[in-house]
Design a protein that fits this description.
The complex is a heterodimer of chains A (355) and B (285).
Chain A lengths: L5 H6 L10 H13 L3 H7 L7 H35 L3 E4 H7 L13 E4 L5 H10 L2 E3 L4 H10 L6 E3 L5 E5 L13 H7 L1 E3 L2 E6 L2 H14 L6 H13 L5 H12 L2 H14 L6 H8 L5 H14 L12 H16 L2 H16 L6
Chain B lengths: L1 E4 L2 E7 L2 H10 L13 E10 L6 E8 L8 E2 L3 H16 L3 E11 L2 E6 L6 H10 L3 E4 L2 E5 L5 E2 L5 E4 L1 H9 L9 E4 L2 E6 L3 H5 L7 E9 L6 E4 L2 H10 L4 H18 L1 E7 L2 H14 L2
Parallel strand pairs in B: 2-3, 7-14, 14-16
Antiparallel strand pairs in B: 1-2, 3-4, 4-5, 6-7, 6-8, 6-9, 9-10, 11-13, 12-13, 15-16
Helix pairs in contact in B: 6-7
Classes of the chains: A alpha/beta (355), B alpha+beta (285).
Chain lengths: 355, 285
C-alpha cells in the first residue's frame, strides 16, 4: 500500500489543522491547488486555526470559488428562459446541480462547464433554443462534429458568445458506444425540481451519486480525480444514512454497479467515508475478480492522488496512462476506437489540429 | 534561491545560466528568505522544441510544475521569468484588489498609474524612481482590501524598445538586466529597482492619486481632472480580479477613488512629466 499524501490525510481526518507545521501548510496548499481543492479546504477549516500566510492562499481560492458559484447561478437563471421556450425541463448535472441545489459539495468547489441532460429526441430543439440565447457550437471541425453526434452521449460544447460560459448538452451519461450505456429515460423520469422553478431539475440524489461515480470511473483523465472523489464523499456524508443502499440498488437497476463498487471501495480506503457492512456486501457483488481488483487498486490508488510531484511514485505516470487507455476501451468497441484514434493521430501529425 | 519580494516568498529555480546572471544583477538588494513557508515555487526549465524538424532549445516557465504559457525561445528566459512571477500573483491571489498599474510613492502618498501597453507607463515609472520616488510596483498594484492602501510588490521595471536606450542614457547609473530581443512585446530589458524601494518593501502607502498617463509625441504636458465614476470604470477594466472580488472589489475601488485625486496626463518630454509629478507630490505635503 502506498503512503497517502498530506492532503488525503487532512481530508480523511487523520491529521487536523492545529497539528500542521507551517511547512506542511505550504505542502497542503500546493497539493490542494494541483487538485482544485484549495477552496474546499478553506471551507472545512476554522480560519482561526490557519496560519496567516497559508490563509491568504486558501481565502484567495475561496473567493474565486464563490464567484464561480454566483456566475453559475446567473447562467442557470438564463437557462430557465431556454427551458420555458423548449416546454421541457432542463436537467442540471454534476457541478451545476450541486450549485443549484445548494449542496455542501458546491462550497469552495471550482466549476468548468455546465452539463445539461435532455431526452435524445429533443437534442436538436434544445440546441436551437440555446443558440437563440447565445450559446453556439465551438468545434468547427467536421469530423469532430460527426463523431460527437454519431457516437457520443453529448453534442460538441456550446459556448456563449458574450459571457463565454460553456454548455455540454447531454442525452445520456455514457457514450452510446459504451457497453454500459444506461437507459437515460430512467434518469430523466426520476429527476427532481430544484428551487422554485419546475423547469430546472437535478437528478434524484441516488442518481446524482451514481452519475458522479460513473463519470469518475469511466474518465480517462484523472488529474482532478481526487476532487471528484471529494464530491462523492460530500454527497454521501450530507445525505441520510440509507442513501448508500439506495445508490447501490439504483446502480444495479441501471447496470452501472461496477462504478459504484469502485466508488465505495476507494471512498472508504482513501477518504474513510463510512460505508456500512451491509452496503459493502451488496456492492461487492459487482466486484471484478481477485486479480482484476489488485490491478485496479494498483492503478486507482495512484491515479486518484493529486497531479503534484509530491503525490506520486515511479508507477503513477504508468497508472494514469493505463487508465486513459482503459477509459477509451470502455467507451468504444475496438472496431470504432481504432479508426478514430488513427484518424486523430494522423490529423495531429499533419498539424491540422492543434491541442 | 528563496527571495522575499514584497509580502511574498518566491523560490526560484533554473538551470539556465543567463538567467542566474539576470537574477543576481536585478535582485541583488532583496532579502533572502528562509524556506519555512514559500508562496510560489517557480522554475524556468529547458525544453527541446521538435517542431519544424529542428531541435531548438526553449525555455518554459513552471509554477509548481504547471506551465501556464507556451515555451519561449531560450534567450527570452529573463523576460519570461518576470512575466511568470507576475502571473503567479495576478492569477492566484484574491486577498488584494490587483490592478494592472504602476505605483510609486513620495511624501507618504502613492500615485497609481494604470495604462495599456505602449502608453509610456514603464518609462515614466523608471524615470520617477530615478528621481527619488519610491517604487511599489511597475506592473501590479496590490490594494489592501481592509485599508485601501497600496501594498508594495517592487520588482525590476520592464522597459521596451526605444525606452531602453532612453533610460540608459538619462540614468547611466541604473543597472540593467540582459536584453531579450524580438519577444512578442518587442525588445524587453529590465532595470533594477532602487535599493531604498526594496528596503521599504514592507511599508504600504495610502493612495493619493490615480493618474492615467499617455505619452503623445509633440504635446505639451497637461494634467486633466477626470470624474470619479469614469476613474472607477477604467480602474475596474484594468483590474485582474475586480469581478472575482464582486461586492468587495466594488467597495474597495470606490473607496480609493473617493480619497484620491484623479487625472489624465498627457506628455511628450520626460522632464515635464517629472516636474508635473513633483507638483503633485507637493500638493499633499
Amino acid at each position: 500500500m502506498i503512503e497517502f499524501p498530506l492532503i488525503v490525510k487532512v481530508l480523511n481526518g487523520e491529521m487536523s489543522a492545529p497539528e500542521l507545521t507551517l511547512k506542511q501548510w505550504e505542502l497542503l496548499i500546493r497539493q490542494a491547488q494541483a487538485s482544485m481543492l484549495a477552496g474546499v479546504l478553506c471551507y472545512r477549516f476554522d480560519p482561526d486555526s490557519i496560519p496567516i500566510r497559508a490563509l491568504r492562499h486558501l481565502q484567495s481560492a475561496r473567493v474565486h470559488s464563490d464567484k464561480q458559484v454566483n456566475d453559475l447561478l446567473w447562467e442557470i437563471h438564463h437557462l430557465k428562459k431556454v427551458a420555458a421556450e423548449l416546454g421541457l425541463p432542463l436537467i442540471l448535472l454534476k457541478g451545476a446541480a450541486y450549485a443549484a441545489s445548494a449542496c455542501p459539495a458546491a462550497r469552495g468547489r471550482f466549476f468548468s462547464d455546465i452539463d445539461l441532460l435532455v431526452p435524445r429526441p429533443v437534442i436538436a430543439d434544445a440546441e436551437k433554443k440555446l443558440m437563440a440565447h447565445g450559446w453556439v457550437s465551438s468545434l468547427h471541425n467536421t469530423y469532430d462534429q460527426y463523431y460527437y453526434r454519431k457516437w457520443m452521449h453529448e453534442i460538441p460544447p456550446l459556448r456563449h458568445v458574450f459571457r463565454g460560459s460553456v454548455i455540454d448538452l447531454h442525452h445520456n451519461i455514457l457514450p452510446l458506444t459504451s457497453k454500459a450505456c444506461p437507459n437515460a429515460s430512467l434518469l430523466i423520469e426520476a429527476a427532481v425540481n430544484v428551487g422554485d422553478n419546475p423547469q430546472i431539475r437535478v437528478l434524484q440524489m441516488p442518481d446524482m451519486v451514481v452519475h458522479s461515480a460513473v463519470h469518475l470511473f469511466y474518465d480517462g483523465e484523472l488529474d482532478h480525480g481526487l476532487r471528484d472523489l471529494v464530491d462523492l464523499d460530500s454527497l454521501l456524508r450530507n445525505s441520510s444514512e440509507d442513501i448508500a443502499m439506495l445508490v447501490v440498488e439504483r446502480a444495479f437497476e441501471l447496470g452501472l454497479q461496477r462504478s459504484i463498487f469502485y466508488a465505495f471501495r476507494y471512498l472508504n480506503i482513501i477518504l474513510q467515508t463510512p460505508i456500512s457492512a451491509e452496503v459493502q456486501q451488496r456492492s461487492q457483488q459487482a466486484a471484478p475478480g481477485r486479480f482484476g481488483l489488485q490491478m485496479m487498486d494498483f492503478l486507482f490508488l495512484r491515479a486518484l492522488m493529486p497531479a503534484h510531484p509530491s503525490c506520486g511514485d515511479q508507477w503513477t505516470g504508468l497508472a494514469r496512462w493505463l487508465l486513459y487507455v482503459r477509459s477509451h476501451w470502455l467507451k468504444m468497441p475496438w472496431y470504432l476506437l481504432f479508426p478514430h484514434l488513427s484518424r486523430k493521430a494522423w490529423f495531429r501529425l499533419m498539424g491540422k489540429e492543434k491541442h | 534561491m528563496i527571495l522575499q519580494i514584497g509580502c511574498f516568498v518566491f523560490s526560484i529555480k533554473s538551470r539556465i545560466k543567463c538567467l542566474a546572471e539576470a537574477i543576481s544583477s536585478l535582485y541583488g538588494d532583496y532579502e533572502l528568505a528562509d524556506d519555512s513557508f514559500i508562496d510560489f515555487h517557480v522554475d524556468l526549465n529547458v525544453v527541446n522544441d521538435v517542431s519544424r524538424l529542428f531541435f531548438r532549445k526553449k525555455a518554459v516557465f513552471l509554477s509548481d510544475g504547471f506551465a501556464p504559457f507556451d515555451p519561449l525561445p531560450y534567450q527570452h528566459a529573463p523576460a519570461l521569468i518576470e512575466w511568470g512571477m507576475n502571473w503567479c500573483v495576478s492569477s492566484q491571489i484574491n486577498t488584494f484588489l490587483i490592478i494592472h498599474a504602476a505605483v510609486v510613492e513620495k511624501h507618504g502618498y502613492a500615485v497609481v498609474m494604470p495604462a495599456p501597453p505602449g502608453s509610456g507607463k514603464s518609462t515614466l515609472t523608471a524615470s520617477l524612481v530615478q528621481e527619488g520616488w519610491r517604487l511599489l510596483s511597475d506592473e501590479l498594484t496590490l490594494v489592501d482590501l481592509q485599508t485601501g492602501s497600496a501594498t508594495p510588490f517592487p520588482r525590476p521595471i520592464s522597459l521596451k524598445n526605444e525606452s531602453i536606450d532612453l533610460i540608459r542614457c538619462r540614468y547611466p547609473k541604473a543597472v540593467f538586466g540582459p536584453l531579450s530581443s524580438d519577444t512578442v512585446k518587442g525588445s524587453v530589458c529590465h532595470v533594477q529597482p532602487p535599493t531604498a524601494s526594496v528596503e521599504m518593501q514592507h511599508q504600504s502607502s495610502p493612495i493619493g492619486w490615480v493618474v492615467f498617463p499617455k505619452y503623445q509625441q509633440g504635446v505639451e504636458a497637461e494634467l486633466l481632472n477626470i470624474g470619479k465614476a469614469e476613474t472607477v470604470m477604467e480602474l475596474a477594466d484594468n483590474s485582474f480580479n475586480y469581478s472575482i472580488l464582486a461586492t468587495t472589489g466594488f467597495n474597495v475601488l470606490t473607496d480609493i477613488v473617493d480619497q484620491a485625486d484623479c487625472y489624465r496626463f498627457r506628455y511628450s518630454r520626460l522632464d515635464d512629466a517629472i516636474a508635473a509629478f513633483e507638483n503633485l507630490a507637493h500638493s499633499k505635503k
